[in-house]
Amino acid sequence: MSGSSRGGERPGPKSIVEGMALLACGRAEGIERFGGSVDSLLSALAPGLAMCLVGFLTVPLQKQPFIGLVRVELSFCTLLALPVISHALARRWGREKLWLRYATAAVWCEWVTVLVSIVALLLGALMFSPLASSPGFGTAVVLASDLYGLWLGVFVARKGLALGWGRAIVLYGATFVFALVCYGLASFLPPHYNFVQDLLQPGVLGGSSSE
Predict the structure, then answer these.
(1) Is the peptide bond before 191 cis (omega within 30 degrees of 0)?
(2) Predicted pLDDT of residue 203
(3) CA distance 16 to 30
(4) How confident is the model at residue 198 (pLDDT cuts 50, 70, 90)?
(5) pTM attached to this predicted model
(6) Where are the bilayer-spanning segments (predicted)?
(7) For a Cys staple, 48 with which of 55, 79, 100, 173, CB 3.0–4.6 Å?
(8) Is residue 168 within 8 Å of 158, Cβ to Cβ?
């Protein structure tokens, strides 16, 4: 297949974008556009890790540095949650050989939700400016994109690891619940980070947030 990644080869940017677009449209062949090597997974994690590093470096400049530090720590934990949890379950279910390609695709596809939210907000502002100015419009768009992100995460797990819908839901649901637990603990423990507002921002559960 032209443009697909084979073996341990690292795919180029075009192949990655094609894979994200295909999976975002519900086309399983998109998984073949991603590499199945450690280097490919590290490349997928690199943007999120870079944003965590930038967030850490800017913590002293923030009005509430302790809250800023908590945000960075949460972003880092949720970024790594999907590969770590999925690896444990893939080993348990005998899918370890498929895991590297799946994890690479899953990490890249976490950004799709962010892009969907941004595009929807921009289109809403251009086409329905009176509606877009209402306080609930942005929240509704982000919630809808997050629901789409949940479906996409389950779909990628199902196709990437050759799972049934049940196991795919368990796998991606476990990472989602882990993120919620982390944010819940952060709200109860000092400095009592109020995470509700951030949960309405695209990508925060996927570790893509730069907060």
Answers:
(1) yes
(2) 41
(3) 9
(4) low
(5) 0.83
(6) 41-60, 66-90, 102-125, 137-157, 169-189
(7) 79
(8) yes
